[in-house]
Amino acid sequence: MKKKWxxxxxxxxxxxxxxGGFMIVHQMREDRSAxxxxxxxxxxxxxxxxxxxxxxxxxxxxxxxxxxxAPEEVPLSGVDLAAxxxxxxxxxxxxxxxxTELSYPLLQGEDNRYYLNRSWEKERNRGGSVxxxxxxxxxxxxxxTILYAHRMRNDSMFGTLKYYRDPDYVRxxxxxxxxxxxxxxxxxVFAAYEAWVRDILYRSDLEESGLEAEFLDYCVASSxxxxxxxxxxxxxILTLSTCTGDGHATRWVVQAVLRETWPAE
Length: 265
Known about the structure:
Number of helices: 4
Order of helices and strands: HHEEEEHEEHEE
Shape: globular
Number of strands: 8
Radius of gyration: 21 Å
Structural class: alpha+beta
Strand content: 15-25%
Strand order of the largest sheet: 1-2-3-4-7-8-6-5
Low-confidence stretches: 18-27
């Protein structure tokens, strides 16, 4: 009887190891598939692969027009969104933090679940996509726009957002760029912190309820960083939201304020 139980335990261990090995192989295949999908997106959009673009020498160009970059020097200025939209009409833009792995098509589905586990090509993948809150205007004209993506361990999707706890990282990557059919937008990072999913920043009625000032006070007070960027009344706010790895009740967010726009030609 003892030998029988030993064999059962050994069999269970073998099956556990096999199952674990299968999961690792499966995850590696999905990671490779996601990386290839991102490369295809960049190629179709006419952009270099993620991580190969360099941040502008000085993103604070609005105060000094003479130092503003030429149109062709603006990040994402040459992105071909129309070509991406031929593949998937849910593409609303492209998001990039120059010099980092964060460079992806921006999607918007009918709900906030579809692109959690689908690539921009609508293929099943645990890495999902970067997607916009389904209630936001796809032209980025809302006072507060929220974007979601997974916090992947290999730093893909929103995996690099965790580095915004480091002041040096904030100084090196101070801006988020989004290209839409209307032009390119530069948002400057002003806050990064852990938030509860029921906090004010996830309310969709900020303007209707007159909560803009309370919302901004909350964001600034909650921030773990102080990059010296202060949103002014009426400026549009962008929130990048991802998981924390500590359950479903909280999210890690990086927030930025719209500071410059280059209209589409």
